[in-house]
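Please predict the structure of the following assembly.
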Amino acid sequence: MKFRVFFVIAILVVGGLFWGAADAVHPFGNPGDVPMDGYFLSHAQRERGVNNVVTSIVFDYRGFDTLGEAAVLFTAVSSVAALFRGKGWR
Amino acid sequence: MPQNDLVHGAVLVLIVVAGFFAIWFRDLLSSIISLSAVSLLLAVEFYILQAPDVAIAEAAIGAGLSTAIYIVALRGCRKAPSGGSLSPEEATPEPGKEEPKP
Amino acid sequence: MRPLSVIVRTVCNAFAWFVAVFGVYVIVHGHLSPGGGFQGGAVVATFMALLLVSHGATKCLGWVRTNFFYAFEHVGLLTFIAAGFLGIGVTFFYNSLALSGGLFGSAVPLGPNGGSLNTSGTIALMNCAVGIEVVGGLSMILLYMMQGVFHVDKPTLRGKEEAGHDR
């Protein structure tokens, strides 16, 4: 019974925090004043010759992130191979 | 735009319904299919929110690959007999025993 | 794991090739349309998932080699790092091929336009490299899980290797 009251209070508190956070978010399609967005949108085609700005951010401006992502995938494959490698099969 | 809001709300409600069914089913295969439906509806939601990159990744990985991996893991399990656990010689399958005969 | 019914196998046999072609399209057009290396690679890896789930482990592991996807993953990762080293004269990951007039080097007009494949410098190379790496990695995860879960040994596999293509 005490746990149930505690859970109800916790759900109310966390829900209230989420509600406040959702109220503070900018409305959809109106992200406020973000100078980084304007820089990428205006410079990607001129500097890098790319039509897809998302790809230019992922692979050029933030190339290190993609390298880390590739390393994460490589580590995951290595761990799965180490876990499931059979007895006689390679 | 009221029609867009209608589709958006319907997709959100269906995500919650599919997520509820994913933990409500006792059958694990039905649960996996419900989880796949959650991923597919989440891809539709990302597409409505104008993020087609994330939608493609979610549809391919969430609805395709992770469902296949869950099904592989489920087919590797064995159902325990009612009222007791598996005996040790029954729990470890012999290699090649359950493969179909050619 | 037994193969599924003939309806599932026929549909998967026909549909897997369309999925693979769509994934290759997403990878190659990564610098023009939504998607890219990771998304397209995941779509292509669904090809292997469809074949594995519908045909079962024994026949499918007789068709493909794990070393093949192993090589895919290493070639993709090394090509990605090498494409990063192409512009090492300025910085690491500098896009030295863009707007140079050579391979992938033509300029694009500002504003909305139709787009051409011969743009964007090393970004297209990195898309293809990451696509190859993701195809190899996710397919290898599926193959290793399949042969680890179902205890497929090589001697039992070797006898069924030729008979697998018939049915």
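The two ends of chain C are 16 Å apart (CA to CA). Chain C has six helices and no strands.
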